[in-house]
Input
Amino acid sequence: MSSSFTYRSISGVSEGFYKEKGSRFIAKAYPVADEDEIRIILESVRKEHHEARHHCYAYILGADSERWRANDDGEPSGTAGRPILGQIRSLDLTNVLVVVSRYFGGTLLGVSGLIKAYRNASASALKNAGITEHVVRNKYMISFPYSVMNDVMKVLKDENIAFKSQEIDLECRLSAELPVSEIERILGRLSRIEGLKYSD
Output
């Protein structure tokens, strides 16, 4: 179960499939970081399955699952996006997009039939996904004189913190992501280093 310090997502792209009265529902689950990435994936799915009649999807983003969307893409309201979203939520996942492409088989499925089909297709894709737990991190910019570089690197190494960008000069700057559960303690250690400043 996710806490305020961790969240669950999927480790890679996975697929699922469901068939009902000739209609085929091809589901794909993707780990995603933001809406821009989602737009690119949706475009590529529409190209890959250009003969499919609908590309319904749902996603949840953010460590506390604060951003989400469900889209029926022309199916009756609430019959596609919501059931997909429900499957993501039932596994307590975030930073996940599920897209279900429907190839129409000639027979109408009705509201309950559609809900069942989209739910089962997305459940199938998520069942095939590896679920991973991630630590919630906050980004900090740390600046310090070059003379204390070894002290800063020792703290980062001790705490197993990777840093992203760096500028090494007389005044050094680096960007590091600190685990939320340990922020106060780590910043306490860093702030004892002479001349070091940090901001989030």
Notes: The chain has two domains: 6-133, 137-199. The first strand starts at residue 6 and ends at 10.
